[in-house]
Amino acid sequence: MEKKLKIGMFGFGCVGQGLYDIFTKTDFQAEIQLICVKDKSKKRSIDASYFTYEKDDILDNPEINLVVEMIDDAEAAYEIVKKALLKGKNVVTANKKMVALHIEELVEIQQQTGTSLLYEAAACGSIPIIRTLAEYYDNEWLYSVSGIFNGTSNYILTKVIQENLDYPTALKQAQELGFAETDPTADVGAFDPLYKLCLVVAQAYGKFIPPQEIFNYGISSLAPQDIQYAKEKGLKIKLIAAVSKVEDREITLSVMPYFVDAKHYLYNVENEYNGVVVEAAFSDKQIFIGKGAGGHPTGSAVLSDISACRYDYRYEYRKAHQQEAISYTRHYPIEVYLRYQDERDIADIDFYEISEQHIAKEFKYVIAVISLEQLFELKTDLPQRNIFIANTGRRVAREVLLGTLENKIAVSDFI
Amino acid sequence: MEKKLKIGMFGFGCVGQGLYDIFTKTDFQAEIQLICVKDKSKKRSIDASYFTYEKDDILDNPEINLVVEMIDDAEAAYEIVKKALLKGKNVVTANKKMVALHIEELVEIQQQTGTSLLYEAAACGSIPIIRTLAEYYDNEWLYSVSGIFNGTSNYILTKVIQENLDYPTALKQAQELGFAETDPTADVGAFDPLYKLCLVVAQAYGKFIPPQEIFNYGISSLAPQDIQYAKEKGLKIKLIAAVSKVEDREITLSVMPYFVDAKHYLYNVENEYNGVVVEAAFSDKQIFIGKGAGGHPTGSAVLSDISACRYDYRYEYRKAHQQEAISYTRHYPIEVYLRYQDERDIADIDFYEISEQHIAKEFKYVIAVISLEQLFELKTDLPQRNIFIANTGRRVAREVLLGTLENKIAVSDFI
């Protein structure tokens, strides 16, 4: 049964305009009633009658049955979305941070009010990963979901690794092309993919994990030495968000740079593209690749959600209702390449199974196993120490962490 | 609202057993009531009480609300599916040939009876391409959908090109691994991907095109010379099914070998994997890669459809209800590499814009533009003449076909 949509829109930036383009260029049947924007002085590309500056003009309007929220401010977005759902309106949002921070509460409100909260555009741009996980993999116990979730940082990594651009130039290019979010640290600091990972985990495992509980590490301390190292080994560096099963009902999560070789499915995912790899028992490995940044891909995802609202589609979070609870752990070993400047910077880090260490005046690194929990505890310190970390991608047996710390690196021995 | 499923299954081959495995190994809540099989003498891996040899034991059983059809015989499958739908039962099928041949009628019955006919497993194994096209791209006017839709032929091509296996050995390997369909000519003769293309077009464009109206050409006449040619140019040969927009409301279709270079997204899709590239105005290019053959990937797709039946999901074919009809044309130029044995074999072929011709005793080929319509007319003749054809993938302006035939190749001039 198709429903007539009367839309109240929040925000009219890059994505909002992309969406407006789609509305006017295709024969999609829905009505934009009102657009709420903040900046009164800004010139608008469409008729002034569309705009309001009062959010309640939309939220208190009983005619509007769908709120499309596309503003940057996560806290303001949260207030809008919460009120809209409580007022019985369906909501489509592109705000990953807001959803990630409040998903448990918002899903509860959705259940209570019988409304629908959709957020395909909040994760991986044009790749329909949320819908696919919600619908297609709703019965499968997934081994892992991992991928390049952030177009901006992938664009920068592509440029610095393949085209030898320096980091600031590459970042500037990404911003000029409109890929970078309003605050670039969300991208290069790996917060943007962190929020997206939370949404993916909610759908893939029915588990709501607060973003602040997850280790995320970006690419802002990437140095020419790291790039040189990767190139010499025939590797690329990709910022990868990953959730994977470690035990029967236990998962672990992280967002961090990885070394990937030419055989890896994400190796050729370049520039602003995103790529997602889903591994499952029965459907085996599947790869989804698509544009991850820019107004049109995101607008397209929003449109798809809007369209689904015509048929009262909602995410069911079926896996959240399964009997056996899934637990989340950071007590999990990973092997990392860790490049540092001064041995004092790593003196307080416990390494297990060191397989390589290189010490030169301008280039010091160690390749060793470390506990994700420890990285998590150090996560605010590491960037200040100008440490770059990349997961080697090699799987480590969990038992490593049970061993003694006798392998702990004693850097002074080497000097 | 979740519905209790009582399942009647037809067939218990590779896919059926894969599905049974999934049912027993996951906590999926549905009941297999009865399995209809043909061969009474065959030993079964599960209890005999599950089996019947009379199809009406299932079709006339009012308790059974879902028929899962997984038999090879397309005509028998058609009778089963039609009757099941008419009896008000939902149907999940993996039979691409049956659906492709009867889709228009079956969709009509689905509408009339309010039932649901789902066939994700009939196209591209574990890749959720049908659902994605049906749901996610239901508003977008797509530029093209193309891909490797057949795991068996891709496995063979991988082995003969990358591992220098000869064709019969590679085919035998594929059969031993259980990838090849009961009749291998369906795979290597490009019928299997042809049927899948029909399903994709139904979802992507809302257009029901009979498979016999489409040019399909397989890899059975592939010769060592063709492989050598591709390798020397750094190309791979992939069997690609494609639908693309040629004018505003006009599409063209084909299934044939293509040369692809290292930059092509399907270049690294190897072995039994399938890959699909969707190009759209707003979401841009998206790539889906996953296992295309084998019991578990297909079983997984069937399971996903079964799960959707619990929520009364059905394909809506929204694009079929759009006002402006889409037309299908074969009057479209493509550039091909055409390897032949004797000049008399190509004497009746009209070429436009010949860009290359090579004539040696053991290796003769021409690279030229040809009309898809002409290839279609010759399609049963070409294999008998032992001609191998590969699309070069270069796009040709449609106007080429409007020119005179003065460029027509006169092979005798060269000899």
Which key terms come to mind for this protein?
homodimer, 13 helices, 24% strand, disordered C terminus, 7-stranded mixed β-sheet
Description:
The structure is a homodimer of 415-residue chains. Chain A is an alpha/beta fold. Helix content of chain A is 32%, strand content 24%. Chain A is built from 13 helices and 17 strands. Chain A has helices spanning 14-25, 55-59, 74-86, 96-113, 129-136, 151-162, 167-176, 184-188, 191-205, 224-232, 295-309, 372-378, 381-384; strands spanning 6-10, 31-36, 51-52, 66-69, 90-93, 117-118, 142-148, 215-216, 236-247, 250-260, 273-280, 284-291, 327-328, 333-340, 352-359, 364-371, 388-391. In chain A, the strands form three sheets. In chain A, strands 7, 8, 9, 10, 11, 12 and 13 form a seven-stranded mixed beta sheet that branches. In chain A, strands 3-2-1-4-5-6 form a six-stranded parallel beta sheet, sandwiched between helices. In chain A, a hairpin with a 2-residue loop joins strand 9 and strand 10. In chain A, helix 6 (151-162) crosses helix 7 (167-176). The longest helix of chain A is centred in the first third of the chain and has 18 residues, at 96-113. The relative contact order of chain A is 0.14. Chains A and B meet through helix 1, helix 5, strand 12 and helix 11 of A and helix 1, helix 5, strand 12 and helix 11 of B. Strand 12 of chain A pairs antiparallel with strand 12 (284-291) of chain B, so a sheet runs across the interface.
